[in-house]
TrEMBL record:
Keywords: Amino-acid transport, ATP-binding, Nucleotide-binding, Transport. This is ABC transporter ATP-binding protein. It holds the Pfam family ABC_tran. The keyword ATP-binding applies. Coiled coil: none annotated. Residues 46-277 form the ABC transporter domain. One of its GO terms (biological process) is L-amino acid transport. It comes from Halostreptopolyspora alba. Belongs to the ABC transporter superfamily. Residues 1-11 have a biased composition (Polar residues). GO terms for molecular function: ATP binding; ATP hydrolysis activity; branched-chain amino acid transmembrane transporter activity.
Length: 281
């Protein structure tokens, strides 16, 4: 089981809700749950505020989890197996009901909104597994990504193939003939077909060779550089924090640590409790 970071945690308010932000010194990561959502929701691109959610009645997996995403950011979500990282992403994407707390996109509540509506509002999601249609070709997989707006398929396919040249070159290949890394490119490409402003990625490098892991991290940065804000769950925690503007460490369904990528990478508690055991690569 994972360590409960709260036991040794000073008062969360020590970092001060009002002082949270860019200028906190290295090492002064916030060890708090919901303290960070201290501005109006409209100040953020996306907010999850004190969210409680779960699968089975009366069993909460997320027990008051908060996260914010600003325009243009890459935000990392890391934590031990079973911490609730995928559950958080799925809850944001409307796949799991919110029991309490709020979700907001550009200041508008999206609590209770269904996944297909979120896609129309510019949110894309790449699940942790089973994220391509194996019997369809690359081209058909991408077309499925934009089935809500067939008129944009051609332009978006060209755009996605520009980002992932392999997808254009091998457009007629069936997804089940591709390697794990190639499939991941298809999954990310498909999520980009609807021109999302927010992309939710759940462990995009899991199970991939080092070469493909490099490629995924590179593509994530490219996707971000063309204006897509990204929330990325990763087992490869160090690597993810290196490219992230900010990160959240989840443990047992709630926030354990929050800070910039650099702050988290240098924080002795985070290193000892999480980075030592999480993908040292
Ligand atoms: N479909 C489900 N039904 C019931 N419980 C589930 C379901 N999916 C996940 N859980 C439980 O929710 C908890 C959090 O799981 P989740 O998949 O969110 O963790 P995670 O942080 O993404 O872990 P990992 O690093 O292994 O992907 C776990 O205890 C898990 O057993
Ligand atoms: Mg997961």
């Amino acid at each position: 089981m994972s360590t409960n970071a709260d036991d040794s945690t000073p008062d969360a308010s020590a970092a001060g809700p009002g002082t949270a932000g860019e200028s906190r010194p290295v090492g002064a990561v916030e060890r708090s749950g919901g303290a960070e959502v201290d501005r109006p929701y409209s100040d953020y691109l996306l907010v999850a505020d004190d969210v409680v959610a779960g699968y089975v009645p009366e069993v909460n997996i997320l027990t008051g989890c908060s996260l914010t995403l600003n325009e243009g950011e890459v935000v990392a979500v890391i934590g031990p197996n079973g911490a609730g990282k995928s559950t958080l992403i799925k809850t944001i994407f409307g796949l799991i009901p919110v029991r309490s707390g709020e979700l907001a996109l550009r200041g508008t509540s999206i609590t209770g909104m269904a996944a297909h509506e979120l896609v129309e509002h510019g949110v894309g999601y790449v699940p942790q597994s089973q994220n391509v249609f194996p019997s369809l070709t690359i081209e058909e997989n991408l077309e499925m990504g934009a089935f809500l707006r067939p008129e944009i398929v051609r332009d978006r396919f060209d755009m996605v193939a520009g980002l992932f040249p392999l997808l254009g070159k091998r457009r007629k290949a069936k997804a089940n003939s591709l390697s794990g890394g190639e499939r991941q490119m298809v999954a990310m490409g498909r999520a980009l077909m609807m021109e999302p402003r927010v992309l939710l990625l759940d462990e995009p490098t899991a199970g991939l060779s080092p070469v493909y892991q490099d490629e995924v991290f590179q593509r994530v940065q490219e996707i971000n550089s063309i204006g897509v804000s990204i929330i990325m769950v990763e087992q490869n925690a160090r690597r993810c924090l290196q490219i992230a503007d900010r990160g959240y460490v989840l443990d047992q369904g709630h926030n354990a640590y929050t800070g910039t990528g650099t702050e988290l990478l240098r924080d002795p508690n985070v290193i000892e409790l999480y980075l030592g055991t999480l993908a040292g690569a």
